[in-house]
Amino acid sequence: MIEARGLSKRFGDVLAVDDLTFDVQPGRVTGFLGPNGSGKSTTMAMIMGLDHATSGSVKILGKQYHELRWPLREVGALLEARAIHPGRSARSHLWSLAQYNSIPKTRVDEVLDRVGLIDVANKRVGKFSLGMGQRLGIAAALLGDPAVVLLDEPVNGLDPEGIRWTRTLCKSLAAEGRTVFLSSHLMAEMALTADQLVVIGKGRLIAEMPVAEFVAHSTGNSYRVRVSSPEALMTVLEGANGEVVLSADGSLLVSGLDAKTIGDLALSLGVAVYELTAQASLEDAFMEMTGSSVEYRGVS
């Protein structure tokens, strides 16, 4: 478990992180979202003891990072995948980390195999592609078999197979009861991977809630509805102040009403409901919730 309480970080006149309080619970994947410059990387650095908080505190498994006796065996992190000496092989890099943390040598090949790098274990890291470097960073995070795993943009540079593998890995780690804290700018992927979200903007907490609940908060939320009598339901929905569009395939696109209201109105008519699907995406909700927190905005 990760517990942040009133966490703040100031760099001169810049308040990068502003009074953040949130929890990252075990047994689920928690996504960490925010626009560029929102303070995500600074927050992760403070969790890992790489930067000192100006005020507040953050604890891992009830302790601050520097209080952990065997850090790599309690928390594993990928914060900067390329922070590895380019002349070292993947195996020697992991073995050096293992020795500092009293981790058996056999564990090195176990994690190399798990991330798909066992066949290039003796290759110099400087020759690795970006995706291979990401996989090695994940291997280092898993080396100590930790209860807490932090991954900052782990799918950066990965191909579709690698992205799917990372998603499956994160879910499997959470299913084992571990605490998984994951940041990414890929909204579609985060929607498939995360159970819970912590969303920040300009260093402040915007939301801390399940993914489905966050998406439901979007005012642009709409529903695709397929029923046995679309015209009849359309009339009733419009009478309830819903906005309804009848599609060519006979389905209805409904906005301004929640799923319960739509279902109840269909039931009152005796209409069979074949589909009632939310159409808002995590990306839509994220853009709406963080629109005022974007630091750099392009012109289209």
The number of E-state strands comes to 13
Largest sheet: number of strands, sense, barrel closure: 6 strands, mixed
Radius of gyration: 23 Å
Looking across the biggest beta sheet, what order are the strands in? 5-6-7-3-8-9
Class by SSE composition: alpha/beta
Q: What is the ordering of alpha helices and beta strands? A: EEEHEHEHHHEHEHEEHEHEEHEH
CA-to-CA gap between the ends?
42 Å
Number of helices: 11
Stretches with pLDDT under 50, minimum 5 residues: none
Quaternary class: single chain
Shape: elongated
Helix content: 25-40%
Proportion in β-strands: 25-35%
Q: What number is the mean pLDDT?
A: 90
Short description, anyone?
35% of the residues lie in helices and 27% in strands.
Q: Could you explain the architecture of this structure?
A:
- The structure is a single chain.
- The chain contains 11 helices and 13 strands.
- With 300 residues, the protein is α/β, with parallel strands linked by helices.
- A 6-stranded mixed sheet has the order 5-6-7-3-8-9, sandwiched between helices.
- A hairpin with a 2-residue loop joins strand 1 and strand 2.
- The two termini are 42 Å apart.
Keywords for this structure?
alpha/beta; four-stranded antiparallel sheet; 300 residues
Which secondary structure elements does this structure contain, and how are they paired or packed?
Elements: E1 2-11, E2 14-24, E3 28-33, H1 40-47, E4 55-60, H2 71-74, E5 75-78, H3 90-100, H4 106-114, H5 130-142, E6 148-152, H6 160-175, E7 179-183, H7 187-193, E8 196-201, E9 204-210, H8 211-216, E10 222-227, H9 230-239, E11 243-246, E12 252-255, H10 259-269, E13 273-278, H11 282-290
Parallel strand pairs: 3-7, 3-8, 5-6, 6-7
Antiparallel strand pairs: 1-2, 1-4, 8-9, 10-12, 10-13, 11-12
Helix pairs in contact: 3-4, 4-5, 9-10
